Each structure stands twice: as C-alpha cells, then as structure tokens.
Amino acid sequence: LKVGVLISGRGSNLQALLDAAGDPSFPAEIALVLSNKADAFGLERAARAGVATAVIDHRAFPKDKPGFEAAMTAALDGAGVELVCLAGFMRLLSPSFVERWHDRLINIHPSLLPSFKGLDTHERALAAGVRLHGCTVHFVRAEMDDGPIIVQAAVPVLPGDDAHSLADRVLGAEHRIYPLALRLIAEGRVTVEGQRATVTGHPL
Ligand code: GRF
C-alpha cells in the first residue's frame, strides 16, 4: 500500500511511520511526505529515510483552499498514493478533499475521541480531571476530529502531571498506535460501516 504523509512540523509520528515502514515485512510504503511548511523538521526525517518530499505552501494559495488542496491531490496522485495519513498537519481540510479521499484518509488525534476534539487537549484533560487520557487514530470526516475510530490507546493521568508530562506519555502511545493502525489497514483488516470501523483478526 502506497502512503502519503501530510505534516506541518516536528514529525515525530511521521518518524514512527518511517521506522515501521523501514521493516521489509511492513505491508505499507511511505511514498511521499508532503508539508505545507518549508521548515518542517519532518521533511529532514523523510529525506534521511530516503523518502520523497514536497512542500505545498498554503500561503501560495491566498483565499484559494480548493487550489491548495488540488495541488496536494496532484502531488499525492503523482506519487501513486493510495492512503493519506495526517500527522500533525495543521490545516483544516475541506469537505471536498475529505470526500475525494473517503476512507483513504486517516488522522491521529491526542485524546480519546470523542472527548477533547481540537487543540490543547492535554491542558483540557487536566482541567477536566479525567483519570485516563490517550490518543485515537480515525478515518477523517468533514467534521474536525470526527470519523470512524480505528485504534485508541489510553494512558493514566498521574498526580503531579502537567501538560508537558502528559503530552509526552500520550506521544509515546501515539508512536505505537499510528504504525499499528496503518498496518491493520494495509493488511485489509479494517472495514467501515456507517460511523464505525471494525478491525478483524487482531486483538486490540
Ligand atoms: C501529535 O500530538 C498529533 O497527535 C497531533 O499533532 C501532534 C504532532 O506531533 N495531531 P508530531 O509532528 O507528529 O511530532
């Protein structure tokens, strides 16, 4: 399965995907890393792994999201991409892009969805006093941080946690479940019916 990864920054989840895909037995190949920011550190990670990169700066398409997204789809199609992974990609995608990649577009979000959609999830989890927090890999739908859930991981909120310590703990779980979710999809183990995804043949 040929995969494109969309990033905007650090790219630690991208690194987890690159590391997993570096194993010859992994059923997916990272064919393109696409960033909307030229200085995203993730671009260096991709180059180091010998993976093709592209920069499509949204600012080159002022008030033209369709143009920006058409350029991204052209780059993804050009690389033969079949599945797109959002990994810290900080632009909201339009319904038409989401529809174009329906059930072929996944995201990782740093909370146990449907709790804490949006930004600052760790601060909000601490403020809410939850005992369990975590992360979610899901198919993307037009609504932000919505869509059929593929894999989740929970981590404890510990006494003395601040947003940084909690974010670190969640990030460790993100780096485990994003490659897992990609592998499950590439192995054809994930089906979507309505609002729900079902995973077969793997003890989640
Ligand atoms: C991660 O916490 C991810 O869940 C969120 O943005 C962050 C990206 O981090 N969507 P990185 O760029 O993968 O290091």
UniProtKB/TrEMBL annotation:
<feature type="site" description="Raises pKa of active site His">
    <location>
        <position position="145"/>
    </location>
</feature>
<dbReference type="InterPro" id="IPR004607">
    <property type="entry name" value="GART"/>
</dbReference>
<feature type="binding site">
    <location>
        <position position="107"/>
    </location>
    <ligand>
        <name>(6R)-10-formyltetrahydrofolate</name>
    </ligand>
</feature>
<dbReference type="InterPro" id="IPR036477">
    <property type="entry name" value="Formyl_transf_N_sf"/>
</dbReference>
<comment type="pathway">
    <text>Purine metabolism; IMP biosynthesis via de novo pathway; N(2)-formyl-N(1)-(5-phospho-D-ribosyl)glycinamide from N(1)-(5-phospho-D-ribosyl)glycinamide (10-formyl THF route): step 1/1.</text>
</comment>
<dbReference type="Pfam" id="PF00551">
    <property type="entry name" value="Formyl_trans_N"/>
</dbReference>
<feature type="binding site">
    <location>
        <begin position="11"/>
        <end position="13"/>
    </location>
    <ligand>
        <name>N(1)-(5-phospho-beta-D-ribosyl)glycinamide</name>
    </ligand>
</feature>
<feature type="binding site">
    <location>
        <position position="65"/>
    </location>
    <ligand>
        <name>(6R)-10-formyltetrahydrofolate</name>
    </ligand>
</feature>
<comment type="function">
    <text>Catalyzes the transfer of a formyl group from 10-formyltetrahydrofolate to 5-phospho-ribosyl-glycinamide (GAR), producing 5-phospho-ribosyl-N-formylglycinamide (FGAR) and tetrahydrofolate.</text>
</comment>
<keyword id="KW-0658">Purine biosynthesis</keyword>
<protein>
    <recommendedName>
        <fullName>Phosphoribosylglycinamide formyltransferase</fullName>
        <ecNumber>2.1.2.2</ecNumber>
    </recommendedName>
</protein>
<feature type="binding site">
    <location>
        <begin position="90"/>
        <end position="93"/>
    </location>
    <ligand>
        <name>(6R)-10-formyltetrahydrofolate</name>
    </ligand>
</feature>
<comment type="similarity">
    <text>Belongs to the GART family.</text>
</comment>
<keyword id="KW-0808">Transferase</keyword>
<feature type="domain" description="Formyl transferase N-terminal">
    <location>
        <begin position="2"/>
        <end position="182"/>
    </location>
</feature>
<feature type="active site" description="Proton donor">
    <location>
        <position position="109"/>
    </location>
</feature>
<dbReference type="InterPro" id="IPR001555">
    <property type="entry name" value="GART_AS"/>
</dbReference>
<dbReference type="GO" id="GO:0004644">
    <property type="term" value="F:phosphoribosylglycinamide formyltransferase activity"/>
</dbReference>
<dbReference type="InterPro" id="IPR002376">
    <property type="entry name" value="Formyl_transf_N"/>
</dbReference>
